[in-house]
Amino acid sequence: MKIEKLQTSNARLRLSWGDPALRALVYQVLILAAVGAAAWYLVSNTLHNLAARNITTGFDFLHREAGFAIGESVIPYSPTDTYGRAIWVGLLNTLRVSVVGIVAATLLGTVLGVARLSNNWLVSRLAGTYVEIVRNVPLLLQLFFWYAVITENLPGPRQALHPLPGVFLSNRGLKLPALRGDALDWMAAGLALAIVGVALLGHWARRHHEATGRVFPLGRAALALVVLLPLLGWWAGGAPLALDMPYLKGFNFTGGLTLTPEFAALLAGLVIYTSAFTAEVVRSGIQAVDRGQWEAAGALGLPRRRILRLVVLPQALRVIVPPMTSQYLNLTKNSSLAVAIGYPDLVSVVNTTLNQTGQAIEGILIIMAAYLTVSLSIALFMNWYNRRIALVER
């Protein structure tokens, strides 16, 4: 009995090239060794060439004075600040245009996607023409077009268009009235709290509707939260708030809030280009919902608008969300084309930095790490949302 067990154990330990598991393990080890050797060669060769040319490596340059100006920034910045702060300003500029672009492209793309399925022939054809033209024109050309429209076809500051009080549109950008005061932070906190409250209230309203069949007036409640909570923040902050109106002084405007031509052109290009792809994603998601859902909801007497909002779109989201993630990632990465029209995004600022410092490898690594972090963050959030709305198998 012991001899038979020993023979069986020896048979299991015998290595044979005919074993597919063994072959797979060997191939993986060889590939891993080849990748490691290639990486070692590239790193060692790069370090040798840098040392031969007396080029220092490392990220110590981030603490040195930048010495160059940045046209616009979300946070205070001056040329006497460090390279690290300059790069942080560029990253925040990238995030600003990406976040605003994602929201605007989603809204516009959803409207276009629904319009493509409209029963109105003219609306459907116009939406289809928009999608086909915009998708087939390179984004870089669209950025050049919008930048030229803003800077060359709009009048100067003295002849600026003045459609509303405090609003001026010229080749220097769009000037808007701005709120100034210590209560702004409190109002922003109130608005953020209102957004969270609306999301939680919407979740409760759906559960309440499923349990009781009663429809909670979510729209009016959400409007009340969005209005009342910022007002409460204004009161809690001591209510010091003033409206800063822009006015013409010399050859340009002073005061107010400025949307520069570079930001406006980049945002317009990204939103218009991405919305065309988003429209196709929304259209395909709606068409993936079985036609019987429309007919069943119509038999209950629901109008087409409520059928789309309450029945079709919630089911279409399960098809829409995965490809929509790719569109959000594309918009964020396409924002790097801002360097072509002079918008100071991350790529533009790092490009200036590496030209002054000679730290090209470190600069490229910073850009790669920043875009990788932002892209993975978007992907993680969208994957979480996709799992949340997915059908649960029983």
Automatic annotation (TrEMBL):
- This protein's major location comes to membrane
Q: Where is the ABC transmembrane type-1 domain?
A: 91-382
Q: Quick one: a GO cellular component term?
A: ATP-binding cassette (ABC) transporter complex
A GO term for molecular function: transmembrane transporter activity
Topology within the bilayer: Multi-pass membrane protein
Give me the segments passing through the membrane. 21-43, 95-115, 127-149, 183-201, 222-243, 263-286, 364-385
The compartments listed are:
Cell inner membrane; Cell membrane
Give the InterPro entries listed for this entry. AA_ABC_transptr_permease_3TM, ArtM/GltK/GlnP/TcyL/YhdX-like, MetI-like, MetI-like_sf
Record's signal peptide:
none
The UniProt record lists the keyword Transmembrane:
yes
Q: Which GO terms describe its biological process?
A: amino acid transport
Asked if the record carries the keyword Oxidoreductase, the reply is no
**Mind listing the UniProt keywords for this protein, alphabetically?**
Amino-acid transport, Cell membrane, Membrane, Transmembrane, Transmembrane helix, Transport
Q: Name one Pfam family in it.
A: BPD_transp_1
For this protein, the record's PANTHER family field holds:
AMINO-ACID ABC TRANSPORTER PERMEASE PROTEIN YHDX-RELATED, MEMBRANE COMPONENT OF AMINO ACID ABC TRANSPORTER
Which family does the similarity line name?
A: Belongs to the binding-protein-dependent transport system permease family. HisMQ subfamily.
Name of the molecule in the record: Amino acid ABC transporter permease
Supply the source organism for this entry: Candidimonas nitroreducens
The root-end lineage is: Bacteria, Pseudomonadati, Pseudomonadota, Betaproteobacteria, Burkholderiales
